[in-house]
Amino acid sequence: MNQLLYRGISEADAAAIYGAWLLGVRPVVGAAITCGPALLLTDRLPDLSAVPVEGEPAVRTALADPLRTAGALRNFRDWRRLPVGTAAGVSSEGLLLFPAEQFSLPDDAAELTFPGVLDTVGTEKEIGDALGRTAKAVRADCEAGLFGRKAKRTPTGWLIVRASWEEKETQADLLPLLLVFATAEAAALWNRPTEDVRSAAAGAGHRAARLEDGERRRAGRTWLVTRAAMEKLYGDPAPEKWRAFIKERQAARPSPEHS
Q1: SS (H, E, C) 125-176
Q2: What is the model's pTM?
Q3: Distance of CA 31 to CAs 70, 76, 107, Å?
């Protein structure tokens, strides 16, 4: 996704809608509309005449060609760019497919960015240092589910949302773990060699393949990278890998105090 924009809603609501889109679920409020390289997070879907798609509950289409409808629906569910000439939007009521000519990006849309998101997530050692505990103790807490969905296992260890021990769990708290990855984790999701991603994070290799401050952060022996940085270098993650990742995230238990 090359453009992440929002209009008519607060930045916090836009972030929540984006989180729902990454999870492949309907947003609680507002809507996400994708067309070409853009994803617009806004207050509602366009008011268009559309018909239900047979066999697809809560899916409507304003596309005349069933093949275009099927292609747009498939790409949308794979978090991929839609076929040329099509657009799609999702709200709490369901999914709408429609011709691209019936959508235009508003001139006053603002870009949604996540400055500082790398610092909202910490490794076992970083969280341990903040809590006055050992990394081993924090790892044991993660494995016992005490951080709930605010922690995720990566090939090189656990990543934990820094506010995990301070605040009640909300959807917004879960977003950083969808936006920040250890390099080995990102390499698996994007089907890339781990060394290529690590080199990009370390600033090695060709200039066009290097990540900058704000796109990556050194955390001890681990490099952390953002989703935006991975999209810049490699495009969208592999659908089957992202789907498995999301399934694992959704299966994670909330922390005990919030269950």
Answers
A1: HHHHHHHCCCHHHHHHHHHCCCCHHHEEEECCEEEEEHHHHCCCCCHHHHCH
A2: 0.90
A3: 21, 14, 18
